[in-house]
Structures are given as structure tokens and as C-alpha cells.
């Protein structure tokens, strides 16, 4: 298996970008649909009913996002409701109260404007994950690592703004504008202030954390916790987030959240000893495989999916607008700097 993720650049109108996306990754989108159809644990008719709800919300917020998803569906030759369901996957999963999968460790270094995370999810999705560059008509370029069919995920843009994602757990169904749509809105924003305007306009009804940083050392952490939203701006040399809410004691350090608390404490301990806050030092933290709940998580059986672990480690140099990315868990892989989808590449 190659250590590199497939890369694709899309451009043109929203619908045209979607068609390019869907056509290029048709097989991967079909595989991703099969995966989520299984873990949603719902009849297809009910998945589509929920997709209709989210489609209406997204259309009222940004109709061009629906046009892009319709293009993906056309290119991949699938029902458009499947693409809406993929983009609403975190919210649809919230309807299954037994699903307690925790995902991801995210960090930002203020001094060097380095942003990064481990993305922890189902092993089968590692082979589906793709790198994309989205060239918007206003000149903004977005580079992101995403699941095929999903239009917003972990990434940075040509303005030097980047975002990371942590899934949070709130024990209630979530029915707001999906977090992956919020991420795409953030990635289209030129500044943190404009990104926050988008975040606030999207309302609540989500359970996720968006760690947003820019090339000038500015950072804000936004926690969506069901019907509440919290913004964390005050921090020292670094900001770290895992999978429990920091602003209020909503998620106790119990069996469900031991892993999240452990990874947070381990990353904070490592970061507290840093002086340079370099790209390499962030990489070292993200590949840390020590402890009962390591930051870089080996694939292990999980009750909600077959095997869960670190699909990828992503480090973003926001000053240089460059991705450094490493595929999978373990010690054998090196970080690469993808060239095809790099910001500014021709």
C-alpha cells in the first residue's frame, strides 16, 4: 500500500467542482457510502429522511454547497441524499446513543503558527481518504484531507488560515447545520474574524470542536456542545484539544472519556517542555505511541467500528501554506509534503 494519499484539484463552478470530485473518486465514494450505511444502523429510507432535513438546512445557509454536493452525486452516479448524508455523518451518528467513538488530538503552536492533528477513525477509511485542493472562483485555494464525497474537513487555505476537527460527545440527537459544512465555511474564510462570523451564523445543534489558527499566531477554539457553543481564546504558547469539552465539565473522566483526558494530558506535558515549537516537535508529539492511551493510536477493535486508530497525522505550516502528512499509525511511515495539491502549485 502506498504511503501517499490520492490527490485531486477541482475548479470551476460549485457544480463543476462537484462533478470533478465525484468522477475522480467514484469507487471510493461508493466504498465510503457502504461504510456509513453500515454504522448508521438505519434503514436507507430513514437515512434519506434525515438527509432531507440537513439538505434543507444547508440550502438555506449556502445553496452553492448543495450544488457542489449535487455535482458529486452526478459524477459518482449515486443518489444525492447519500452525499448529503456523508456530509452530515457526525450528526446522523449522534442518533445512535451507543456510539461513543472518540476521535483525534489537535494542537496549535502560537510562536510558529503550526497547526496539526491526528485523525483517528476506522481503519477501513484509511484507504479511502483523499487530499484535495479546491480552487474557488474568488482566487482562494483550499487544501484539505477529507473522506471522498465530503466537502469540508481538516485543512488550510491560501490566506494562511487552517482548521482541525475533534468529535465531541453530547448525549442527544444533533440536528443543526452539519459540522463538515461549518468546516468548509471556515476554510473559505480569509481571516479568523470572518471564520467566526460563519461559525456563529451556523448556530448550534452540533457536537464537535474546531481549532482555528492563522499564520500570524492567532487562534480560537470553538466547542459545539449540543445547544451550546463556547469560544476559547485565552491560552499560552499552545492550544491542545482532544474529545471532551473544556469550557464546562460536561464530559467526566470516566470510562468513555479516559482516552481523551489521557491524550490531552500527555500532549500538554510534551508541549510544556518545548522552546522552539517547531514543525518537527509537533510531529514528534503526534507520533507518540507510548502509554495506555497513546496520542498516535494503533488500530484496535472497537465496539462501534471494526478497528479504530490513527488514519493520518497532519501538520500544517500556516506561514508557508504547506501540508506535512503521515499515513496511518505505527513507526514505519514518514511525513510527506504533497506537491500536486499544494497551495500555489500550478
Structural commentary:
With 346 residues, the protein is an alpha+beta fold. It has 2 domains: 7-93, Arc Repressor Mutant, subunit A, CATH 1.10.10; 105-327, Penicillin V Acylase, Chain A, CATH 3.60.60. It is built from 10 helices and 14 strands. The strands form 2 sheets. Strands 1-4-5-6-7-8-9-10 form an 8-stranded mixed β-sheet, covered by helices on one side. The radius of gyration is 18 Å and the shape is globular. The two termini are 27 Å apart. 51% of the residues are buried. The model has no long low-confidence stretch (mean pLDDT 94).
Number of helix segments? 10
Remind me, CATH topology of the largest domain? Penicillin V Acylase, Chain A
**Count of structural domains:** 2
Q: What share of the residues does DSSP label as strand, in percent?
A: 15-25%
Rg calculated over all Cα atoms: 18 Å
The biggest beta sheet, please?
A: 8 strands, mixed
Structure summary, number of beta strands: 14
Note the overall shape: globular
Determine the N-to-C terminus distance: 27 Å
CATH architecture of the largest domain: 4-Layer Sandwich
Q: Tell me the helix content.
A: 25-40%
Uncertain stretches of 5 or more adjacent residues: none
Main sheet: strand order: 1-4-5-6-7-8-9-10
**If you average the pLDDT, what whole number results?**
94
Q: What class do helices, strands and sheet pairing give?
A: alpha+beta
What is the CATH C-level name of the largest domain? Alpha Beta
Q: Secondary-structure element order, as H and E?
A: EHHHHHHEEEEEEHHEEEEHHEEE
Report the CATH superfamily of the largest domain. Penicillin V Acylase, Chain A
Amino acid at each position: 500500500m502506498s504511503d501517499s494519499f490520492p490527490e485531486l484539484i477541482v475548479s470551476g463552478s460549485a457544480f463543476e467542482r462537484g462533478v470533478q470530485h465525484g468522477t475522480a473518486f467514484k469507487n471510493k465514494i461508493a466504498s465510503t457510502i457502504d461504510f456509513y450505511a453500515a454504522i448508521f444502523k438505519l434503514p436507507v429510507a430513514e437515512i434519506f429522511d434525515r438527509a432531507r432535513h440537513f439538505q434543507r438546512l444547508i440550502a438555506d445557509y449556502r445553496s452553492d454547497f448543495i450544488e457542489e454536493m449535487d455535482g458529486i452525486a452526478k459524477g459518482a452516479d449515486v443518489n444525492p441524499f447519500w452525499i448529503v448524508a456523508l456530509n452530515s455523518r457526525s450528526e446522523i451518528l449522534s442518533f445512535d446513543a451507543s456510539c461513543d467513538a472518540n476521535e483525534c488530538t489537535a494542537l496549535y503552536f502560537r510562536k510558529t503558527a503550526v497547526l496539526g492533528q491526528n485523525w483517528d477513525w476506522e481503519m477501513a477509511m484509511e484507504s479511502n481518504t483523499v487530499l484535495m485542493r479546491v480552487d474557488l472562483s474568488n482566487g482562494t485555494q483550499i487544501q484539505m484531507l477529507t473522506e471522498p464525497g465530503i466537502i469540508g474537513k481538516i485543512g488550510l487555505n491560501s490566506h494562511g488560515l487552517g482548521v482541525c476537527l475533534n468529535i465531541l460527545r453530547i448525549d442527544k440527537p444533533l440536528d443543526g447545520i452539519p459540522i463538515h459544512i461549518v468546516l468548509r465555511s471556515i476554510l473559505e474564510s480569509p481571516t479568523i474574524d470572518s471564520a467566526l462570523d460563519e461559525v456563529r451564523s451556523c448556530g448550534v445543534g452540533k457536537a464537535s470542536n474546531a481549532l482555528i489558527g492563522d499564520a500570524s499566531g492567532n487562534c480560537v477554539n470553538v466547542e459545539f456542545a449540543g445547544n451550546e457553543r463556547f469560544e476559547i481564546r485565552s491560552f499560552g504558547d499552545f492550544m491542545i484539544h482532544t474529545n471532551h469539552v473544556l469550557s464546562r465539565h460536561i464530559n467526566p473522566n470516566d470510562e468513555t472519556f479516559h482516552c481523551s483526558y489521557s491524550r490531552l494530558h500527555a500532549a500538554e506535558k510534551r508541549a510544556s517542555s518545548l522552546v522552539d515549537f517547531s514543525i518537527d516537535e509537533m510531529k514528534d508529539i503526534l507520533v507518540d505511541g507510548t502509554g495506555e492511551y497513546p496520542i498516535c493510536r494503533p488500530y484496535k477493535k472497537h465496539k462501534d467500528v471494526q478497528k479504530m486508530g490513527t488514519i493520518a497525522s497532519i501538520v500544517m505550516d500556516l506561514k508557508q501554506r504547506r501540508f506535512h502528512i503521515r499515513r496511518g499509525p505505527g513507526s514505519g511511515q514518514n511525513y510527506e509534503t504533497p506537491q500536486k495539491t499544494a497551495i500555489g502549485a500550478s
